[in-house]
TrEMBL record, chain A:
One of its GO terms (biological process) is respiratory electron transport chain. This is Cytochrome c oxidase subunit 1. Residues 7-521 form the Cytochrome oxidase subunit I profile domain. Its EC number is 7.1.1.9. Pathway: Energy metabolism; oxidative phosphorylation. The gene is ctaD. Keywords: Cell membrane, Copper, Electron transport, Heme, Iron, Membrane, Metal-binding, Respiratory chain, Translocase, Transmembrane, Transmembrane helix, Transport.
Automatic annotation (TrEMBL), chain B:
It comes from the Bacteria. PROSITE patterns: COX2, COX2_CUA, COX2_TM, CYTC, PROKAR_LIPOPROTEIN. Residues 23-121 form the Cytochrome oxidase subunit II transmembrane region profile domain. This is Cytochrome c oxidase subunit 2. Keywords: Copper, Electron transport, Heme, Iron, Membrane, Metal-binding, Respiratory chain, Translocase, Transmembrane, Transmembrane helix, Transport. One of its GO terms (molecular function) is oxidoreductase activity. The gene is coxB. Its cofactor is Cu cation. GO terms for biological process: ATP synthesis coupled electron transport. The keyword Iron applies. Its EC number is 7.1.1.9. It is found in: Cell membrane; Membrane. Belongs to the cytochrome c oxidase subunit 2 family. Residues 248-342 form the Cytochrome c domain.
């Protein structure tokens, strides 16, 4: 089976079948970026509706679909895959590996996410999008008396995408445990890899709760069971628990890798080693652990009683401690450095004060006796956007500008990048800062309109103007990407004078990553080599043939099968269910019986690549 | 609890500043100008946590500003490599221990007030008890001790803690009167108990705070706080049998109300069972028609009632009343009848 890797394939076929983590990263980036635009558009439509009191730009039914899809899209279809994009692009390189542990599953994870997201969004064209909120509280979501058929798309779409995420999480756990280069001990791992490691563990334990919840919801909606039917003895609070046992760790699944990106960007642009590495690692692990202990702070008003509320309140406050440690460590990494203000670092420096503001309101929200006012008001909307946009999205933008040259070999335009940053940064604060007051002045979240003469008009107008700023900033990013893609200015291996392994190889890296597996001689391995006056890594092995996995169309087919079956379940269409499940099963069968040994890249080819400076 | 409230009043400067900066909102809706004991507790906890957090913000922002200005890369530094500091145990200890102390300071009043707000007055003989049941998209208020039931306008006495029992007929709603008390959910199939109190008479705006469907944004209600004698008078008036209609038009309206089947969902007067629509016994005295249609005078009130009768489904999409087919004369008669459904005036 060892045919040569030079065999020509069509471009489309290549992308559909690829198992190369670097290409899968680009797939995640494109798909996640697309859904980010969709979710952003939904947000802008909502903000236009709320620009003034009693407007009729969209009606209540449409607004509920917009708010549900905005939340669901941004969390599951934008933030998660964009995180996965950087996980794929960077982690194997940072640990000196040639690929992830299970390249096939990596591809499967992407296609499951993609088709799950597609299924969810197709609801717009088939009877309306889900309208029960991204939290889909039962019985609003569990009975078609109260919500539209769109909720079926939510359930099936998320279930399919969720399998992909779970597979991805497991894959990265195994990769990071097993595939580190010689010398890359746990306590030498770059912090981004550490955060991905902890986030993957969170995925492993958090997503099953969502899977179970969605299964119960699916049974109630499609097969008339009564898990959430109070009249038949069901219990609605169970959904809230299951959702938030998943939902709270999910916040950390998103923010920890963003912390990781920051911990890569700040040392590079301050030209200093990360301050307090050990405490950073323990802080990440502790945040991940405590993340499972606090879900009830989303449920303080459910009526679980003062004992439960008090316990979860204090557990929530405890998270502020490791988070504070991280903030101070970043500040003291900057202290005494030589700070450069490239766009990547602008995003990181914008992250710090913004995220601190979100963290501060987080501590305020942890106080139940005050939270009764904040809960389900615009105060909460402001808080979690400070965390998710000011934290996760700023972090992702920092990562985008930082790793773009490594992923594509070109540098994004700095001037446009700075325009985008300032417009987005100002727009963000204009949008969300007034929302703290809107909430305290009595504006509940998820309202499609509000009456005049309630003191809510100015805040909402400012908020909408801010949202338009962010919209313009996003268009500038698209222009930047377009210009960069056309200009084709090569970036070089190490444009930022960076410290970790991925910057030692060419941009973009060859498909085998490292011609010779590197020997890691300390924390910040590339910096260590630089300080010893070397420009290359110390190899841990002689140059030899490299074993590579073959591409496969099977992950794509398996995902298409589940996509068809999902449609079948939604429409209660038995043939479609059977065809879809059958397709997936047949694909799984072939995966099991075909003996795929992969192929080898020969030493001579590697030597040729090296000579060409790849 | 009192200490914390006092503490929050000693340092109202910042609160004042924020109010000046941004306005404090409508005074019977905002949580920033509490008018009830519950909201005062909420507010004091907001302020305590805010002060502590502002302390944190000042420190972080100061360090941030300093490093970003002081440690910018300057020309000529290319060949100077900054000291690669690994960490500093003392510093790291400091920013671990200080937050722990701050959080303990915050946690103590948090726990105390959380229990304070969870006091249960449902067995207290002296407390007025009100069963609040939420429906898509309106509120039913029952006073079980008095055999009184009303909707949309919750009447309560001032200066005492009133026990509220929350349930829902359909989906989850949430009972929120920001000026008086933070919110609590109305769950179907489970009862939540809370208390609420108002320091002074007034009309306070209430809202549903949990997404409940198409007209979630329109599910407003009012709390009308009366001094105790006034409240007792209201209860007495509600207990009396409905007054006879006097004008011919109102009597015609009453007959239409029965013949058109309105009465199948709306009780007028005593109501033993739950019904699909709100009790209309004091409909003519509602502060607002259907929770959202405001008026200044009687003519506007008539217009708004007519508006509601004709455009029900447009005004509150998804509500259970359904489109009513009525002639203009029928609307006039019904308006005359409904506006005269009063208990207090003579």
């Amino acid at each position: 089976m060892a045919h040569s890797h030079t065999k020509k394939k069509s471009v489309v076929w290549d992308w559909l079948t690829t198992v190369d983590h670097k290409k899968i990263a680009i797939l995640y980036l494109v798909a996640g970026g697309f859904f980010f635009l969709v979710g952003g558009l939904e947000a802008i439509l909502m903000r236009i509706q709320l620009m003034g009191p009693t407007q009729e730009f969209v009606d209540g039914a449409t607004f509920n679909q917009l708010l549900t899809m905005h939340g669901t899209t941004m969390i599951f279809l934008a933030a998660m895959p964009l995180i996965f994009a950087f996980m794929n692009a960077v982690v194997p390189l940072q640990i000196g590996a040639r690929d992830v542990a299970f390249p096939f599953i990596n591809s499967l994870g992407f296609w499951l996410f993609f088709f799950g997201g597609l299924l969810l969004n197709l609801s717009w064209f088939f009877g309306g999008a889900p309208d029960a909120g991204w939290t889909a509280y039962a019985p609003l979501s569990s009975s078609d008396l109260y919500s539209g058929s769109g909720v079926d798309y939510y359930i099936l779409g998320l279930q399919i995408a969720g399998i992909g995420t779970l597979a991805g999480g497991i894959n990265f756990l195994v990769t990071i445990i097993n595939m580190r280069a010689p010398g890359m001990t746990y306590m030498r791992m770059p912090l981004f890899t550490w955060t991905v490691f902890v986030a993957s563990a969170l995925i492993l334990f958090a997503f099953p709760a969502l899977t179970v919840g969605l299964a119960l919801l699916m049974f109630d909606r499609l097969f008339d069971t009564n898990f959430f039917n109070v009249a038949a003895g069901g219990n609605i609070t169970i959904w809230e628990h299951l959702f938030w046992i998943f939902g709270h760790p999910e916040v950390y699944i998103l923010i920890l890798p963003a912390f990781g990106i920051l911990s890569e960007v700040i040392p590079v642009f301050a030209r200093k080693r990360l301050f307090g590495y050990t405490s950073m690692v323990f802080a990440v692990a502790l945040i991940g652990f405590l993340g499972f202990m606090v879900w009830v702070h989303h449920m303080f008003t459910v009526g679980l009683g003062p004992i439960a509320n008090a316990i979860f309140s204090i557990a929530t406050m405890a998270i502020a401690i490791p988070t504070g440690i991280k903030i101070f460590n970043w500040l003291f990494t900057l202290w005494g450095g030589q700070i450069r203000f490239d766009t990547a670092n602008l995003w990181a420096l914008g992250f710090l004060p913004t995220f601190v503001l979100g963290g501060v309101t987080g501590v305020m929200l942890s106080v139940p006796s005050a939270d009764y006012q904040y809960h389900d008001s615009y105060f909460v909307v402001a808080h979690f956007h400070y965390v998710i946009v000011g934290g996760v999205v700023f972090g992702l933008f920092a990562g985008l500008f930082y790793w773009w040259p490594k992923m594509f070999g070109t540098l994004l335009h700095e001037g446009l990048g700075k325009w985008q940053f300032w417009l987005f940064f100002i727009g963000f604060h204009l949008t969300f800062f007034p929302q703290h007051w809107l909430g305290l002045m009595g504006m509940p979240r998820r309202v499609f309109t509000y009456l005049p003469d309630q003191g809510l008009d100015e805040g909402n107008l400012i908020s909408t103007i801010g949202a338009l700023f962010m919209g313009v900033a996003t268009i500038i990013l698209l222009v930047n990407i377009f210009i960069t893609a056309r200009s084709k200015v090569r970036a070089g291996n190490d444009p930022w004078d960076a410290r970790t392994l991925e910057w030692a190889i060419s941009s973009p890296p060859p498909e085998y990553n490292f011609a010779q597996t590197p020997l890691v001689r300390g924390y910040d391995p590339l910096w260590v080599e630089k300080m010893d006056g070397r420009t290359e890594l110390t190899p841990a092995e002689p140059l030899g043939d490299i074993h590579m996995p073959n591409g496969s169309i099977i992950p794509f087919i398996m995902s298409v099968g589940l996509f068809i079956a999902g449609f079948g379940f939604i429409g209660s269409n038995l043939p479609a269910i059977l065809i879809g499940m059958g397709t997936t099963l047949v694909a799984m069968f072939f995966r099991s019986v075909i003996d795929d040994h992969g192929y080898h890249i020969h030493k001579e080819d590697l030597e040729k690549d090296l000579k060409e400076g790849k | 609890m009192k200490i914390w409230q006092k503490l929050s009043r000693i340092v109202p400067l910042f609160a004042l500043l924020t109010l000046v900066l941004s306005g404090c909102g409508r005074d019977n809706l905002t949580a920033l100008v509490p008018k009830g004991e519950g909201a005062e507790i909420n507010y004091s906890m907001m302020m305590i946590s805010l002060y502590i957090m502002i302390g944190v913000l000042v420190v972080v922002f100061a360090i941030y500003t300093y490093v970003v200005i002081k440690y910018r890369k300057r020309p000529g530094q290319e060949n100077v490599i900054p000291k690669q500091t690994e960490g500093n145990h003392l510093l790291e200890l400091v920013w671990t221990v200080i937050p722990i102390i701050l959080l303990i300071i915050l946690a103590i009043p948090t726990v105390i007030t959380t229990f304070e707000l969870a006091e249960d007055y449902s067995k207290d003989e002296n407390a007025v008890k009100i069963n609040v049941k939420a429906y898509l998209y309106w509120w039913d208020f029952e006073y079980p001790e008095y055999g009184v039931r009303t909707a949309q306008d919750l009447y309560m006495p001032t200066g005492e803690r009133v026990s509220i029992a929350l349930t829902s007929e359909d989906v989850i709603h949430s009972f929120w009167v920001p000026t008086l008390q933070g919110k609590m959910d109305n769950n179907p199939g489970e009862e939540n108990v809370m208390w609420i109190s108002a320091n002074e008479p007034g009309v306070y705006r209430g809202k549903c705070a949990e997404l409940c469907g198409v007209s979630h944004a329109l599910m407003d209600f009012k709390v009308i706080a009366l001094d105790r004698p006034e409240f007792d008078k209201w209860i007495e008036a509600m207990q009396a049998p409905p007054k006879e209609m006097t004008t011919p038009l109102a009597i015609e309206g009453q007959q239409l109300f029965e013949s058109k089947g309105c009465i199948g969902c709306h009780a007028v007067g005593e109501q033993k069972f739950e019904m699909a629509g709100p009790n209309l016994k004091n409909f003519g005295e509602r502060e607002v028609v259907a929770g959202i249609l405001y008026y200044e005078n009687e003519q506007e009130q008539r217009d708004q009632i007519a508006n509601w009768l004709i455009n029900t489904m447009e005004l509150k999409p998804g509500n259970k009343m359904g489109k009513q087919v009525l002639t203009q004369d029928e609307v006039d008669a019904l308006v005359e009848y409904l506006i005269n459904l009063k208990v207090l005036e003579d």
